[in-house]
């Protein structure tokens, strides 16, 4: 995949449900969102990298540390909807939504992910999972995934799925906050209504499965 065709947007919202101000939480003197931003730059997988936010505090912090930030509207239902607003103003053919709470994401993973974007069509999106530990399976802050044999996602949940009758198993998949779209598939995703599953779990990727 030609990196010149790929836009990376990191949505960052100050009013987090679980931890207000989370994007600005400092790790070794640098805001969380900037660790993610720098990982994206280090990957050299994208033509442009932006933080998308509706909060001046986040924009100011990103620019202070040498990053690029774009101000967006405040009424977006999810990070992907915020990413779409930024993508509309570009000529990129493919768009990556990199969640702002992935400070340790490996640059090589981002390179591999970007190189797989040419598999997409106008109706599909790409995401990423990895093996989960038992502790991660039990942690509601870690999103779990169930996959079909062909690798397609069947469901995502904060609960430990698939349910293991007789006790939690020592394996499962954890979802990584990374989504890839074509401009067309991103627009179609954002046109879908927010269903009961997305609203219940507060997981935007369920919109694609439910819709």
Report on the architecture of this protein:
- The protein is α/β, with parallel strands linked by helices and 211 residues long.
- 30% of the residues lie in helices and 24% in strands.
- Strands 1, 4, 5, 6, 7, 8, 9 and 10 form an eight-stranded mixed sheet that branches. Strands 2-3 form a two-stranded antiparallel ribbon.
- A hairpin with a 2-residue loop joins strand 2 and strand 3.
- Helix 1 crosses helix 4 and helix 3 crosses helix 6.
- The chain is globular, with a radius of gyration of 17 Å.
- The mean pLDDT is 93.
In short, what is this structure?
By secondary structure, the protein is α/β, with parallel strands linked by helices.
Task: Walk me through the topology.
Elements: E1 6-12, E2 26-27, E3 30-31, H1 32-43, E4 48-53, H2 56-64, E5 69-71, H3 79-87, E6 94-98, H4 107-115, E7 126-131, H5 134-138, E8 144-147, E9 153-157, E10 173-182, H6 183-191, H7 196-201, H8 206-210
Parallel strand pairs: 1-4, 1-6, 4-5
Antiparallel strand pairs: 2-3, 6-10, 7-10, 8-9, 8-10
Helix pairs in contact: 1-4, 3-6
Total of helices: 8
Q: CATH homologous superfamily - what is it? A: Spore Coat Polysaccharide Biosynthesis Protein SpsA, Chain A
Mean pLDDT: 93
How is the CATH topology named?
Answer: Spore Coat Polysaccharide Biosynthesis Protein SpsA, Chain A
Sequence stretches where pLDDT stays below 50 over 5 or more residues = none
Helix fraction bin: 25-40%
What structural category do the secondary elements indicate? alpha/beta
Amount of beta strand: 15-25%
CATH class label: Alpha Beta
Overall 3D form: globular
Indicate how many domains the architecture comprises. 1
Based on the structure given, which CATH architecture is correct?
A: Alpha-Beta Complex
Taken in chain order, the helices and strands follow as EEEHEHEHEHEHEEEHHH
Integer-rounded radius of gyration: 17 Å
What characterizes the major β-sheet?
Answer: 8 strands, mixed
Q: Could you give the distance between the termini?
A: 28 Å
Number of strands: 10
């Amino acid at each position: 995949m030609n990196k010149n065709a790929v836009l990376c947007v990191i949505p960052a919202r100050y009013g987090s449900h679980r931890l207000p101000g989370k994007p600005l939480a400092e790790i070794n003197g640098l805001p969380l969102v900037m660790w993610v931003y720098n990982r994206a730059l280090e990957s050299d997988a994208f033509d442009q990298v932006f933080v998308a936010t509706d909060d001046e505090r986040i924009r100011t912090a990103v620019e202070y540390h040498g990053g690029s930030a774009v101000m967006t509207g405040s009424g977006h239902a999810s990070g992907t909807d915020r990413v779409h607003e930024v993508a509309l103003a570009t000529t990129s053919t493919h768009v990556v939504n990199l969640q702002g709470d992935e400070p340790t994401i490996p640059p090589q993973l981002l390179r591999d992910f970007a190189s797989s974007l040419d598999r997409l069509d106008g109706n599909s999106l790409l995401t990423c999972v990895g093996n989960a530990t038992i502790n991660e399976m039990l942690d509601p802050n870690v999103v779990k995934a169930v996959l079909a044999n062909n690798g397609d996602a069947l469901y995502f949940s904060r609960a430990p799925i698939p349910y293991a009758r007789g006790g939690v198993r020592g394996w499962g998949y954890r979802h990584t906050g990374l989504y890839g779209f074509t401009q067309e598939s991103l627009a179609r995703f954002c046109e879908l209504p927010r269903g009961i599953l997305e609203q219940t779990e507060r997981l935007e990727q369920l919109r694609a499965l439910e819709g």
